[in-house]
Structure formats: C-alpha cells, structure tokens
C-alpha cells in the first residue's frame, strides 16, 4: 500500500526512533500568517528593531509556531490513529529560530501502556526539533492514546516514563545574547509590569475573547502540516463522535497565549513547557477566553536583567474568565474549560 | 491591575502625547496576506520589476497596509473604549515603506469635546507613523467618540481643532524618485486611462462586488494588531447592539480601494487622506461594492509625468453602484452606503 | 468607459496577441499562504535544505502556484465573460520559479468556434508565463466558452486547433540541476515509493478529505489576482444559476494535488499538464477527496536518477474514493466527481 496508514499501538516499541518527514523552511510568510491567525502583540516577535535593542539579530519566530511545526511533523508517524492527545511535559526551547531556517524532527518512543479495554494504548514519545545544523531547537514529551489495529495483538509490558512535574529552572535555555538590561522599552512592549511586579499565586483575567472560524483553524493546522484527519474533513467528522471538525489543541494554546498579552505583555518568550492538557474540545464558533496564574518565580542564574515566571494558562470557550473558572477539588474541569497549560516565560526585571 | 482598561474620555488632556506599543516589522508575508484579503491589482505594489521601471527600488507596501498598521497601534491607547470612529482628516503619506521596515507610532491629543449627555466625548488625535530611522511615513488626524468611565467626572473645556477640508496639493508627498515619464507601461498597469483622461465631477461605477467572511476580516484586523473588541468576540457582541461582530472600518476602505482598480487602475498610490466616514456598519456576509467620483485634479509642482486626482470613494453593502447611491440633500446616507472616503492619488500623465 | 467590460466572443481574432496586466512578484508570503490553504507536504517545495540536497538553489514555488498566478492574469482579457472553463492542454513548466521572482503573462488566440446557439463561442488561447528575464516559465493552452455581446454579431470561420493528446516526454523540462541520485532522502520525503515502484494502470486512493470554506477559496483566488466574478460576489451569485459562489477550479486542482501526497509523496514536481476538466462545480462546505491512476511511465532522456509518471488525478466532493468513482462508458461523470486532471510528474528512481 502506497498510502500511509499510520502506526497503531501494537506497532510501537520502547526505544524505537522515528525520523519525521517533510523538513520545513519557515519564513516571513509563516510569521505573517501566525500574526493574522492569533493577533499576538509581543514586541520581541513583532519588531526586528525591538529584538535588536535587546540583543537578538532580529525577531525570532514565535515559540509556539516552532512548537506547532515540530508537532505537525510527528503526526503522521505518532498520532494518525490517535483517539486523544493526552499531555505534554519536559518541553524546552533550546535555541531561537529565525525566518529562513529549516526545521526537521524526530522522536523516540519512551513509554507504552495498553489500556485495559485492549482497544487502545498510551504512547509516550520524546520529540526533538532541529535546525539545519542539526542543533536542537525544541524538545518535549507528549503522550497520546492510540488505537490498536487488532485488539488481540500482543503488546510489550507496560513502560511508563517518569516525567518531571516541571522543568527545573537550570535546565531552561535563555538565549545568552538576550539582554533586557537598560534598553528594554516598556512603552514599546506594552506594559510597565516586569518580573518583579508579579507574585506567586497571582491570577490575571486576560479579558479579551476571540471567536474561532473553521477557515482559521484549518489554515493554521495546514500551515503546520499537521495532517490529523479530525481537523479537516466535515464529511467524515459530521458522522463522528462530535458531528463536527475538532480544532487542533495547539490552536487554542496560541490563541490563549496571544490573549494573555493583556496582562503579561512582558512575558517575552516561552522557554519551557511543564505540562498541558486539552481538557475539553473546541469547535468553530466558540469564543476563547483565558486567564493566567503565576505558579512560581525564579531568577535566571548569573543574570539580573531577566527572570523566569512559571505560568498556568487556562483557556475557556464561551465563558469570560473574571471568576477564574477552574477544575474542582476532584480535578474535574467544567465543560467550558478547554486548556490547562503550564509553562515558563522569561521576563525583564526592574 | 495588569490588564489595560484603555483610556476613558476623562483620562485625555489636550497636548497629551501617547507612545503606542508594539513596533511592527512588515514583510513579504504581510504583503501576501494583504493581497489574499483584498485582491488588489495595482501594478506598483504588485511587481518589483514594475516598481523599478518607475524609479522605486522595489514594490512599496500598499499605503493602506501602512495606514492600518499605524492605526492598529493607536487602538489600545485611544479607542479601546470607543463607541464609534467618527472621521479622518489631514492624512499624508510621507515616505514609501518597503518590506522589512519597522513601523512605530505615537499620537498627540489635539481636541476634546464632551457630549451633552455626559456619557461620552469626542477625542481628536493626530497620529504619526515612523520608520526605524524615526522618519515620519504617515500622519493623520482621527476623531473618535469615547465613553466616560464616570459620567460625573469633570472634564476640561472643549477644544475642537480646526481641520483642513482637504490636504493642499503642495503638502502632499510624491516620492521624488517615482518617475512615470516614459517607462510607464499601461499594458502592464491594466488601463490606458491616465490623469489627463479624468475630469472633475466624473463618476465611475467599479462594478465588482466582494462578499466578506468572518474569518477574513478577523485575520485582517489581527494582522494590523488592532485589538478593538467588537471585531473578534461573538460571545459578547452577540448580546450587544448589533448582535454581531462589527467589521473594522479600514477593512472596507481596503476592499473599496481594491475594487476601484476597475476604473482607476493607474491611481498608483494614495498620497493623502482628506476625510473619511464609516457611515453604516458592515457585517460578515455583506457584499461590498464601490463607486468613485473625481473631486479635483491638480498637477504635481515641477513635474510633467504625474498628476494628482482627488477622489471620493463610496462603498456600499448589498447594493451595486450603477446608480451611484449617495447621501441626500440633508447629508443623510442610505443604509446600504457604508463608507464615504476622500483621498488624493497620484497618477501618470500622458 | 473606464472599467473593463472584458472581451466578448466576437472581440477575439485568431492570431490576436494579448498582454496581460499586473506583473506579480511572488515571495515567501505567497509560499506560506499556499501552504496554509492546501497543506501540501512535498519536501522539495517545503524545505530549502531538501531542495539544496537535490541540486536546486532553494525551494521552488509550487508549480500550481505559478500556474494559478499566470492563469489569473489572463482572466480579465480572456474569460471575464466566460460561461465555463472547458479544458487545458499542452501545459509545460519550463523553468522553476523562486521566491522573489516576478511573473508576467501574455496569450495568443489560437482557435475560435461559435456555438450553434450563436449566444456563445469557444475561445482557444495559448498562454505564456514569463519571469523578469522574459524567459518562459510556463506555457499552456486553455479553451473557454465565452458569451457573445450580440448574438447577431458576425464571427470569423471556425478554427479549432489540433492539440496534443498528451505532452511528449521529450518536450518536458526537468530542471537540469535537479539530481535525485544519491542524496534523495525518502525518510524526509515521506515515502519509500520511487518511480520504479509504480505501474501503469495502478490506482491509488488518497484517503484524506478536506472541507472547503468560503474564506479559503476567496483568499486563494485573490492571491492569484483572478477576478472572475462568480467566485466573490454572493449578492449576485445568490440570484444566479447555482445560488452560490462557485469555487475557482484551480483551487480544486491544488487541493487534490496536496491530498495526493498520501500515496505519491515522491512525485516532486509537476512538469506537464496533458489535460484537465472541471466536470462538476464545487461549493463551500463540500469536502474534497482524490484518487490517482498511473497512465504511463517514461524515463527522462540521458538520466538514471529520475523518471516521469503520467498521472490522472480525479477529485470528488463528499465522496471518498475507495471505489475510484469515474466516468461511465459514455464518458459521463457522476455528479460527485469534480475534476479529471492529467499531468506529468518527475520522481526519483531507485
């Protein structure tokens, strides 16, 4: 068969390495589409001049554009037969990526656990994104529930990797040439609030809401060359479990991050992904809102210009976030909460 | 509070200067998105080779892309709490902007007038767009009706600036290296009609109509980093005065300008904005048509290759323009007329 | 009249040459939009690094982006008053086009045949796309049914050009620097199946389906500066023969080609178009599927690294292609089949 049927749960082995197809040169067009799709306003990714003032050669690509591109590459090999994308961990952005650079990706299977129904199993992979010099620009773990081709197929003994609850600050990469010292202009960045102004535990309602259209999420997901079928095919999804096309979870992360500008304008770069769950699906026509909570604050070793904020970013659909809608004591999420994302950002200090 | 609540009427003072956030590098991606959103066909902005034939180093960005970008920057400071954008005046494009250039913007409050209901007031600002050398590329006045936070708040005495009815030809900037002399190829520009062929008073029906989709106007408005809430949030707008998302007025200007190619193909650049009013709202699903009237013709001082046309560009929704729908004797517009825009364009002479 | 009414059937003469307006510089933004609109994953057009590994200076533009751009230029002169685009033949891609290059186009009328109803006639044109050095990058014939302005208008005697049933392999242009020899990496290209693995007669169901939205096809068609009215104006089309906007046939070709990656990932470039018919219309909301059949296999003269596949690409709407839906014995197509396209692709050999 010449078409790719994707891997089923029983096709995976712990230790297996997968080289993902279609390397991708990201360029100014991808930057503009990302802008048009999410409306992000972080100054570092928006202005070459601002980027140069803080020590970079020019504006780097949005970290999440890099993430989605690498993620998309892994779909045909990892999650073509997935039921659900369950979580992320140990994500680190290791090097800024600039327009004109080419990304490729490979993954290693680090865990496998069949579900008790024997219809599906959980596949844990560590995925690496590389630039043209084969330098790692991104590394993260995700786990995904994948169908078995055959419920009777024998599978290896379960291996569940031990994953860090969060990325340790010393393992995060803050670009060495980035310098928020004296030239960081808060009039241009859009907020006077620096790292010092945030407190662990603090919650921020990002106020704004953005309604999502079918054309938008499909254009985004194709931009990332993500081929998961549930996003594109109304003919088959109309007969499926939701009756609708499901929006790529990464689209929600990018929307929520863009919305979080209003309250976190100086959270200039994402440097780590501690975890993330798509706790409910989003469909076109839904309006996305977001709120954040500061989970932790850490200095950057040997630097006084920049600090690290660990942030929890919660997105909802059709529910403003003034009351910070959240999971209950048992960990169950209201149906309007769609994302619970935990990341490290780097921010200028006073 | 870390989120931006925007300024209310009583927060403004005449003479106040506002530096707007998020400088923005515009590049080839923005050019292509602008193309995909409006379908403009003016040769100068479309072809580097054509631009070089008439003396420019390469295709400049569409003047309205520059306008929307600068306008968008001013929204968080000027019009986040606006009820309506009332008008434009004294707009001048002072220098072509090329892909790769970074724009920033600042504004000065030049007038304030509380409305008699004390709920709102009119704010007049002069906004400047600058390139990375801090050279002005665009300057214009707009006035906008802004809510008061508190109807009882004291406000200063009214100051209403005296604004020019139109920009004087000698104040317009025609790029000095632009040369329409012998190398202007009308087979490539799409029309044989030059400046000499137009007559003051002449009306042109631009014939074509373009239907607008939600995804399109939201992508455009995010491309301009314009954060006005009414454009994006169906959840809240669905309960609002129109029950729908309102389309950014500048989207209509760009659509009407693109449609005007058919009849004004040689109106190569917009060099001045004399005035403009969004006289009725546009919503997704509406089809935009346009007609133009030549208001004035002026030579360019010391030049025989180029002339100036003062044009009135009227856009409608769901109403073809063969009968030139217009305001009545009392100045009231039919509900299908959505834009009345007055600008100067530069055109080749015979 | 200053607006372009387009040519009617009686305005054309065999031998007539038409220079099309609006040369167009294609750049990285066009590449990204093409990506976002179709989701293509062919490695050669996706990665500069991959392109360099096989001998090209960088990723060329997708062949179909070049085709649509050239086609779009011809619309205002050839098909503004068209009833239907009837077919293509003798298409050859003669030189890769890279971001930053400027395309222009001209056409020659090579045939005319009035229909018996005297209301319309068929116009045959050969259209050439050129780069800034006036080198041909693309040449093809299309024929289109065009309205008469006046049924009584006299027309010349019918001339029907003799068109090749397919482009002869020796007339196809495979870029001389393209080298699939040792460095073609099938892990990156997405498939191990090379030219040698395909057999004449073989059919491939490409499995995936993509639903099309109004915003997408209009953005695509404007990107190509194609002004055919039926694609954009719901106000008038709502009263027309379909009650809806008709999707540009080229949008279907690009979708089907992108879908065909799954099964033909190594069909790296389109080098010839033997024929093509849009056998039924597509409207927004329809889901496009595709299947291919290998019609012929030919070597490339003097080369062992690459071979030619002649492929038939059939697209459907709302009909998966597992059973290869096709025309019947009388040549009539089921209503769900929308495209029958015949092209030559170049592929690596083992």
Largest sheet of chain A: 12 strands, antiparallel
Q: What do the pLDDT scores of chain A average to?
A: 97
Q: How large, in whole angstroms, is the Cα Rg of chain A?
A: 20 Å
Distance between the termini of chain A: 61 Å
**Estimated structural class of chain A:** alpha+beta
Helix content of chain A: 10-25%
Q: What share of the residues of chain A does DSSP label as strand, in percent?
A: 25-35%
Number of helices of chain A: 9
Q: Biggest interface, and residues per chain?
A: B-C, 51 and 40 residues
Any overview of this molecule?
Three copies of one chain form a homotrimer. Chain A has helices spanning about 30-40, 45, 50-55, 65-80, 185-190, 215-225, 235, 250-260, 260-265; strands at about 15-20, 25, 80-95, 100-115, 120-130, 135-145, 205, 210, 270-280, 285-300, 305-315, 335-350. In chain A, strands 1, 2, 3, 4, 5, 6, 7, 8, 9, 10, 11 and 12 form a twelve-stranded antiparallel sheet that branches. With about 350 residues, chain A is an alpha+beta fold. In chain A, a hairpin with a 5-residue loop joins strand 4 (about 100-115) and strand 5. The first copy, chain A, is globular, with a radius of gyration of 20 Å. In chain A, about 60% of the residues are buried. The model of chain A has no long low-confidence stretch (mean pLDDT about 95). In chain A, helix 1 runs antiparallel to helix 6. Chain A has nine helices and twelve strands. In chain A, about 20% of the residues lie in helices and about 30% in strands. Chains B and C meet through helix 1, helix 3, helix 5, strand 8 and helix 6 of B and strand 2, helix 1, helix 6 and helix 7 of C.
């Amino acid at each position: 068969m010449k078409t790719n049927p994707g891997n089923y749960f029983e096709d995976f082995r712990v230790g297996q390495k997968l080289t993902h197809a279609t390397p991708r040169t990201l360029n100014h067009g991808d930057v503009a589409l990302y802008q048009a799709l999410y409306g992000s306003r972080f100054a570092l990714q928006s202005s070459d001049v601002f980027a140069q003032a803080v020590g970079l050669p020019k504006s780097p690509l949005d970290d999440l554009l890099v993430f989605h591109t690498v993620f998309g590459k892994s779909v045909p090999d990892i999650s073509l037969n997935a039921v659900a994308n369950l979580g992320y961990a140990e994500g680190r952005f290791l090097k800024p990526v600039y327009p004109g650079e080419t990304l490729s990706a490979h993954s290693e299977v680090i865990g496998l656990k069949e579900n008790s129904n024997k219809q599906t199993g959980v596949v844990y992979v560590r995925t690496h994104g590389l630039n043209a010099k084969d330098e790692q620009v991104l590394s993260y773990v995700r786990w995904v529930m994948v169908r078995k081709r055959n419920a009777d197929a024998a599978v290896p003994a379960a291996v569940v990797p031990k994953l860090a609850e969060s990325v340790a600050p010393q393992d995060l990469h803050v670009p060495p040439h980035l310098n928020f010292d004296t030239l960081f202009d808060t009039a241009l960045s859009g907020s006077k609030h620096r790292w010092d102004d945030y407190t662990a535990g603090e919650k921020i309602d990002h106020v704004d809401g953005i309604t999502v259209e079918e054309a938008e999420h499909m254009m985004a997901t194709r931009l990332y060359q993500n081929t998961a079928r549930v996003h594109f095919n109304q003919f088959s999804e109309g007969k499926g479990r939701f009756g609708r096309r499901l929006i790529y979870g990464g689209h929600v992360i990018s929307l929520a991050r863009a919305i979080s500008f209003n309250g976190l304008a100086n959270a200039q770069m994402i440097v780590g992904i501690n975890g993330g769950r798509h706790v409910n699906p989003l469909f076109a026509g839904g309006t996305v809102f977001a709120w954040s909570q500061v989970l932790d604050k850490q200095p950057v070793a040997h630097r006084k210009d920049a600090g690290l904020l660990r942030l929890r970013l919660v997105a909802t659909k059709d529910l403003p976030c003034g009351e910070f809608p959240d999971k209950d004591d048992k960990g169950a999420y209201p149906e309007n909460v769609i994302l619970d994302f935990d990341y490290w950002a780097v921010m200028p200090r006073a």
